[in-house]
Each structure stands twice: as C-alpha cells, then as structure tokens.
C-alpha cells in the first residue's frame, strides 16, 4: 500500500464474513467497508447480528469465514498483534464495563500506561482532559458504582478515547440507560462524529442515526439488507424488511 | 496450672506453637503463590497449562494430607535423599512446608477460580478491548477483583492450613500436637487441662483470624 493513497483506502473492510453460533447463522456473507472519518450506524431488529458484527471488528467475536481488514491489515488471530490492533480500536459496550475496582481516572489512564507505556503523570493529565471533555472531570476519583449510568458510559467513552484510537465501535451504548441519560451520551458521540472520528455505531436511537450518521446500514437475519444515507434511508427504505422495521419503530 | 508452671514444659509449649506459626507462615506464602499460578493456568487459553492445573488440583486435593507429608518424608527425603537442611528439625520443617504448600495450593487455586467466575465477562472484554494482553488482563483486571471476592473463603483455607500443620508431627517435628502428646504422657493426671490449653491456644489465634478475614472481605468488596 502506498502511503499517499492511504487516506482514500477504507479503514475497516469486511469481506464475505460468516459467523455461526452452533447452528445459528448470525452473520451471512456480510460485506461492509467504512471509510476514514465516516460514521456508520447499524440498525435492525433484535437478533439480526448487529452486535456480533460490531464485536467482530476487534475480534471479540471470532468469525468462521471471510476476512476483516483494519487499516490495511487482516485482523491478527491472537496474541500481541491482536492486542496491538485492539488498542487502536476503541470499544464502548452496552453495559459500560468500567473496571469496578479502579477509579474513573484509573480506568481512563490504565490503557495509556500499561499498553502505550505513557508516563503516569502524562496519562493523568490527558485523562483529566478527556474526562473534562465528556463532562465528568469532577467524578475522577470516584468508583464506577458511585456514578449514574450516563456518567459511567461517558467515562467508558473517555477510556476508549484515551488510547487515541483510529476508530470507535459502539455496541448499543445507550440501551442500558435510563431515558433521561441517553441524551448526555449521544451528545458526546455527536461531538466525536463532528470531530471526524471514524465510528461504527450499533443503536436503536433513530434520532442519532438521522443527524450524526453518514450512512445507515440495515441488518436483518444476519444479512446486510440495505445501506444508504440516513435521509434517503428513513424517507425511502427500499427493502420490505426495512419498511416493516421502520413502520414499527417510527409510528410512536 | 502445675504442668505449665514448670519452665521446661512451658518452653516446650511455646516452641511447639512456634513451629506451627512458622509452618503456617511459610506454607501460606508458598501456597498463595502456587495457587495463583495454578488458577492462571486453569483459565489460560493454552491446553497444556489447563491440563497441568487440573491435574495438580485433582491429585493433591484428593490425596489425604497425611499421605502427602509421608511421601515428602519417605519419598523425597528417605528414598530420593533430598535433604533440605543439615538440622534434622529444619529438614522436617521444610519437608512439611513442601507437602502443606502443594496440598493447600490446590484449595487456593479452586477458591480463586470460583472468584474469577464472579467477575463479569465484560470486565475481561473491556480489558482486551483497550489492548491489554491475556496476562495483563488477568493480573490487572480479573485477579484483583476475583481475589477480593474470595477473601473469606481464603481465610477458611488459611485456618485449615494452620490446623493441618500438626500433621507434620507424624514425621517427627516437635510441633504443638507432638508436644501435647508428650506432656500428656508425662503428666497423666492433667490430661484434660493440657488438652484444653492446646486446643484453646489454637482457638484463641484462629477465631480472630476468621473475623479479620470477614471484616476484610466486607471492606475490600468490589461494588458493582
């Protein structure tokens, strides 16, 4: 790969990806490419394979066939090479998964110190700045269980950002939140998108998909059924599955 | 207490319990180190290590400690001529510590493994997602939380270890139970008193240990 055309090359490419859980075919020949700086929102009914797709990108789920490349390289199978790849891909989980025995600031600085070998003082400064950015700098010395869900999820985003990732994966980041806390998390994600972060977001938040996504990908039964710009997708879904899905969720 | 007012008897009593304390201390440290390693092996992705950890636990957890201690003496020392000290007492002490450690490590391993199961899978996933290696994930994220969850059971393992050290008396070390036997032999008229003093000494030390571990377990519990 020549360095000069690196920026045109898609950052994430899935090629004919298949995944089974036992007999269940959760990903069927999925092809998807995500450009640099692009925000792709994945929507679809429960059990359609959205989360599996998202988790396969940093190999938290292994795949049975096909190929996934990140930044020009095929995902390593295991070991240090895989750890290095994961350090470049931020991940935000539905259940936050903050390290329960560490403070919020320690959660954010752990990766930079242990993986990137940054000096603790430097990592601390950057960590505090990131917590400031997501609006919870005053919670730095508390433990995760002392924070609200929205605050925990914002801390989790800060933890992922602390690694200065090339892309961020969001696996239903607002699904476990009380309704009044969804907004604060989406605000952080929207500002990230605006700053040019490459993002793959699995979500049920259609508002976010509408205003922050460059592209909406609709999945059903493990297949990538259709993809389009959000305006186009919500106004004129082409497939029956998408029409059916949208009619169910947009009527309320 | 006529028996213990004799300074010679009192010194025997003290020296017996000193052996118990030393064996407990040395074996606890070794068993903890070994137990952590074994637990790490049992959850590792490497089949050979998992197999080794499982084999260790199954062998030593299911063999009576008396047999293990006998093996250390008759097998390691008498047959294989592995001598750990020129001093006969110290030699028996270390043979006993080896037996106690390999035996207790199996229980420490299983306690820790049950603790690992209390740590939500998401914790390890989040650790891997920021690029920590398998061993970093285990050392920095999973084991510290697992250990806090099993402080109380580890306290029970420690208490059992302390009492188990008396079995080393069977290979000749003059620890507390051997001393007790000797004092009873020499003072047949004060059997009950001697017994109560020895049992009471164990209880006086171990009951607070139990409460200490219970207190620690509460204090260090991970809030979720």
Automatic annotation (TrEMBL), chain A:
Keywords: Amino-acid transport, ATP-binding, Cell membrane, Membrane, Nucleotide-binding, Transport
Domain of life where this protein originates: Bacteria
Entry's localization field: Cell membrane
Annotated SMART domains: AAA
A single cellular component GO annotation: plasma membrane
Enzyme Commission number(s) from the entry: 7.4.2.1
Record-linked Gene3D superfamilies: P-loop containing nucleotide triphosphate hydrolases
Pfam families referenced in this protein's UniProt entry, alphabetically: ABC_tran
GO molecular function: ATP binding; ATP hydrolysis activity; ATPase-coupled polar amino acid-transporter activity
Membrane topology: Peripheral membrane protein
Record-linked CDD domains: ABC_HisP_GlnQ
Coarse class of the protein's main subcellular location: membrane
Domain ABC transporter: 12-246
Catalytic activity, as annotated: a polar amino acid(out) + ATP + H2O = a polar amino acid(in) + ADP + phosphate + H(+)
Protein family: Belongs to the ABC transporter superfamily.
Protein name: ABC-type polar-amino-acid transporter
Organism: Asanoa ishikariensis
TrEMBL record, chain B:
Matches recorded under InterPro entries: AA_ABC_transptr_permease_3TM, ArtM/GltK/GlnP/TcyL/YhdX-like, MetI-like, MetI-like_sf
Spans traversing the lipid bilayer: 20-41, 62-80, 92-112, 149-171, 191-217
Membrane topology: Multi-pass membrane protein
One Pfam entry name: BPD_transp_1
Domain of life: Bacteria
Gene Ontology terms for molecular function: transmembrane transporter activity
Biological processes, Gene Ontology terms: amino acid transport
Key words, A-Z: Amino-acid transport, Cell membrane, Membrane, Transmembrane, Transmembrane helix, Transport
Keyword Glycoprotein: no
Keyword Cell membrane: yes
Localization in the cell: Cell membrane
Gene3D superfamilies named in the record: MetI-like (1.10.3720.10)
Family as reported in the entry's similarity comment: Belongs to the binding-protein-dependent transport system permease family. HisMQ subfamily.
Protein name listed in UniProt: Glutamate transport system permease protein
Organism, scientific name: Asanoa ishikariensis
